Amino acid sequence: xxxxxxxxxxxxxxxxxLLVCALAAGFIGWGLWLSGPEGSRDxxxxxLAARDTLxxxxxxxxxxxxxxxxxxxxxxxAAAVFRLSGAAVSGGAVACLFLVLGAGLFGKNLVNVWxxxxxxxxxxxxxxxxxxxxxxxxxxxxxxxPVVSELLFSSHLELWQSFPLAMGTGVAAGFVLPPVAAxxxxxxxxxxxxxxxFTVGILGSVLVPLLLFYGVAPEPVFIWSTGYTRQxxxxxxxxxxxxxxxxxxxxxxxxxxxxxxxxxxxxxxADFLAAHGDGAILASMGLLGLAATGYVLAVxxxxxxxxxxxxxxxxxxxxxxxxLRNILPVAAGVWLVAxxxxxxxxxxxxxxxxxxxxxxxxxxxxxxxxxGLAAGACLAAVTQSVGLILGGLxxxxxxxxxxxxxxxxxxxxxxxxxxxxQRAAAPRL
Length: 429
What we know:
The chain folds into 2 domains: 13-213, no CATH class; 237-417, no CATH class. The protein is 71% helix and 0% strand. The chain is built from 17 helices and no strands. The longest helix is centred in the first third of the chain and has 36 residues, at 13-48. The termini are far apart.
């Protein structure tokens, strides 16, 4: 008999990191099996020397072996940084690591993240704050890693120019991320879960004009692989199916606790791990991953590097704001616009908008499904234009768009909700 009055079991930070590392190791092993050791090595080298403006699909550039090797190794390094720094492994940290794994398939690599991490570490030292408190910010902020690759491998500059420019720009970006992110959170008041996407978008909208002014023109690309769905989908389905099983092994009430979890609004900051325990959250993450993967398969989209990254972002934030009840209205809003508008649901931009757009899950959680639909519908249109502003230099373009949508719709929805509450509380004459 389930006893929901019992406190949910919570794993240690080290145990949580081990679970994430096991997933990363699975990605590495799957890639090596698909491409072989030599093919994976050669693919990884091709990825490390590439410009990374959006959209650069590492699966197309380096094969599944190279892409999965890069992503897995990057997460193992990130987990080591969390562990060695003593950073708390909260729901937000798990979301961060999943996003590192996902973005390691289409923009973050073992070369271009270091200047940004160094910049954030220097900020922590300058302000005399432990780096542990900024580790997640640093890795989230590596959304600007394409800036480093773009400058480092620019055909317009000599190496003696490109190297210091890339390093200096990356360090400067990492240095300013923590204070800027803290300030910009107020703009959307937690109605977007991708605050760092909004932050790096704002920074990118300043950085890109600066680069253009000095004659460095980012060149957006579209490298998008097809034909890998049958190779990648089994890994994702197996990993997500295993999560509820592991969750039940940790907490036999993991599935029963979903009712309480689904009642959460998801408004950031929302550490579901702290509130509901590891078993329930692992089960929810698995269900989210299966739903996201199922959506892509149902609409006929490609599962490749960027789409796998988007699916992992949905599942990863299962510990920090997302659950099935609050993501489905947002995804449905994108689907409706894609189906009855000028696009179609299986097109790359619409698949990514439906998945990454679940950053707006708090809109549905706080204000109801109608506002979730509206947020998704708005995002589907807004996200198509942000790439022009950022020049492909931020990996979280949809997060940038989500910040604007949340900053506009959120206050309107809150005002109407408050007005209804005031009318309901007013005495009747």
